[in-house]
Structure formats: C-alpha cells, structure tokens
Amino acid sequence: MATSDTAFGGSGSGSTRSAVGHAVMIAAAAALGGFLFGYDTAVINGAVGAIRDKYDIGAGGTGLTVSLTLLGAALGAWIAGDLADRLGRIRVMQLAAVLFFIGALGSAFPFSVYDLTAWRIVGGVAVGFAAVIAPAYIAEISPAQIRGRLGSMYQLAIVLGIAISQLVNYALTQAAGGARETLAGIEAWQWMLALEAIPAVLYLLMTFPIPESPRFLVLRGRDDQARKVLADVEGGSDEQVTARIEEVRASLHDHRAKTTVRQLFSKRLGVAPLVWIGIALAALQQFVGINVIFYYSATLWEAVGFGEDRSLLISVVSALVNIVGTFVAIAVIDRIGRRPLLLIGSVGMAVSLATTAICFSSAVITTDADGDSVATLSGANGTIALVAANTFVFFFAFSWGPVVWVLISEMFPNRVRGAAVGVATAANWVANFLVSATFPALADWNLSATYGGYAVMAALSFFVVWKFVTETRGRTLEAAG
C-alpha cells in the first residue's frame, strides 16, 4: 500500500506509484459530480436578478426560487445511500448525470417561474446524489494514507464548478450587455443555466470506465472483481490484497442492504452518537452562511453600491479565493489532520464574519425607485467588508469546505456508511435551504445582525469540533466506528 511519502507519485515502488496514480484518476472522474454540484448551486447567482425582474417576484419569491432546489438536494441525499447499496455507486452517479442534464435544459427554457423552480428541484436531486456518492465512493477506492487528499479533490471540483459558473456568468453578461439581454435570441441568464448540460454529458461518459467500489463488490459477493480493484488502487502483494478483502468482509458482516433511518438511531447498531455528530457537522457547514456568498453575492454587493459588472467580478474573485483555499487543504489535510483544520477554520470564520457584521452596522439604508431597501457602505467600510468576506471564504475553503465531506465519508462503519452519509448530507441541504431561503428577507431587515448570526454559528462550530470530533487521519475505513 502507498505510504505518506509515496502519495501522489513520490518515492516508492513502481507498482505502488502506479496504484496511486490509478486511484487519483478514478477519484478525479468521480469528483466531476462535485463540479456539477458547484456549478448547479452557484450559477443561479448570476441569473437570480434577471429571474426576479422577468417574473416580477419579491424577496420571498426570489428566496424560494433559489432555495427550493436545495430541498431537492436534501431529497436526493436522503435516498442516495439506499440506492447506492441497492444499485451500486456507479449507477447512482449515472442517474445523477442524467438528472443534471435534464434539470439544466429544463430550467434554462421554462414556461413560468413555477416550472423553472421545478426543474431546479430536479437538478437539486442530482446535486444530492452527487453530494453523497462522490465523497463516499472516493473514500472507498482511496488508500488510507492519501484518502484526505483524494477526498479533497471532490471539494476542489465543487469550487472549480463555482468558479467556472461565475466566470460564465460574467462573460455572458459582458457579451450580452446584461443578464436580461439576448445572445443568438436567448437571454444571457438562460445560457448560464443551459451550459451545465455540457459537463453533465461528460460526467455520464466518465462513469463508464471507472470501477465499482470494492466494498460494494464484496457486499455483493463479487470478490474477484473487488480483488482486482483493490490491487489497482492500493497495490501490494496478493497476500496483502487478500488480507484487505478479508478485512472488508469482516467489517461488512452486519451490513444490511437497506439500513433505515430508524435503525441508525437505534441502540442496537450503536452508531447514533456518530450520526448526530455527522448531522451537526453537516448543518454547521451551512449555518455559517457560506452559500450566501455564492448564491447572492452579486445582488448583495450591487445593493451596497457596486455596479452589476463589478458585483459579478467580485463573485469571480471570491470563487478564485475559494480555489486557493481548497488547494491549501489538499496540501495539508493528510499532514495536519482533520480536527486541527476544522478548529483553525472555525476561529478564522468567526473573526471575519464578525468583522463583516460590524462593517454592515454602519450602512445607510435608503429606498430605491422600486421601493426596495438599499444599503450603502461609506468610507473604507465597503473595502473592509469585501476583504473580510473573502477572508471568510478562504478560511472556509481550507477547513470546513473539504474537511467536513472527508470526515463524514470516513467516520461511519462500513455497515451503515451509505445510509449515514445520506442522512448527514440531507441535513446539510436542509440547513443550506434554511440559510438561502431566509437570507433575502434577513438582508432587507438587518444585514449586520444577519452576518452576526453567522459569526455565532462559526463560534459554535469550534465548540462542537473541540468537544465531539475525533481524528480519522490515516485510519482504514474498516477501522471506523
């Protein structure tokens, strides 16, 4: 098996380097689901203003149009674990790719705001599938010593999807002269949503050559196939691969094809405390308000005095900061560990969010011609708020962004991993929905108090990690639980 010195092509035997290289390529293909996750959830940032104007909806309607897709994601996450245990990880990835494709084209060419929202929910189900299956699959095919880095590739794919969506939004708005203006007879915001169909097709094609999870194969009694996959991605002698097969089989002896939510919380399985920790981590990842930056940043910065062009450009900058932070996480997660990164991130997020809240407390509120409230930041407060918001993005990107997904994919025993990851991920999307649906109204009410609330959640996240989270770095998945 690979050691920490040989990960990603360091020194070591040729067979080990080949196995690591194979694992990296497989993880990269699976992580494309994360790219679609990021693109689908963030592309609405550039389209939301145009949708609001086209369909003449207020803050509440805008919040629901943006955020109901997240309930679709919660539904997808809830059922993905069971589907993965029944059909296999690869089949669920393929189903997600098809739903991404349908949702992209449907939402780009709607008849009304109602079916637009329905198509966004379809895409949300695909996001929920990807959010469960991609990190779980990557964890199951990764050597323990580099699992953190390979798992972080999923988060990297998410932030790349976010960044590309913001670049696409900015480029299309510039080319058309506005999100409501047309290119080839189609409004720019429709192009933003429709272009997601391209990576959806690529994702579908890339799922065919990658292997099924060895743990699913052992569960289904297909040991010869599992042996080949383990040899390809972990290397080692025949005896070592056989020992790994036996270790996997032993960890699965209590596995049920269908582990219900009720069973997860029963005393018999003994995993309820872990499930609650997973739910808390997943929910807090959203309660700090990260997706406010990616769903509403363009309209937010426009509201505090930046023009549409500059607001979209600021969104691009935030997406690039997100990428840089994720690369930092990939570089250090298997050296520093999961728990220290979460603690550092919690402190950084709390301070930067509190700074943003203080800046917004000085905003001057006026009413525009449409009767909407507009906040204006005076002096250096606008610049400080902008820097603080991007500092928050950076701290999130190298800690709570990737680490929560890695930790959730590692912390549960094999016998319940699919169902438990599904429940935790569903909690993540419900929390995402609550934050996204309430932000427009909260922002109209009091931006400073809203960001102050997110700062409190960041402080709470530090306590939860300090008190309840144990380190999983370097453990095999069979040692979980």
Give structural notes:
The chain is mainly alpha-helical. It has one domain: MFS general substrate transporter like domains (Growth Hormone, Chain: A), CATH 1.20.1250. The chain has helices at 14-42, 44-55, 59-87, 89-108, 113-141, 147-176, 188-194, 197-207, 214-219, 223-234, 238-251, 261-264, 272-287, 290-303, 308-336, 338-360, 381-397, 400-411, 417-445, 447-468, and strands spanning 182-183, 186-187, 364-367, 373-376. The strands form 2 sheets. A two-stranded antiparallel sheet has the order 1-2. Helix 2 packs across helix 3, helix 6 packs antiparallel against helix 7 (188-194) and helix 16 runs antiparallel to helix 17. The radius of gyration is 22 Å and the shape is globular.
Features:
481 residues; mainly alpha; Growth Hormone, Chain: A; two-stranded antiparallel ribbon; 20 helices; 4 strands; 76% helix; 2% strand; disordered N terminus
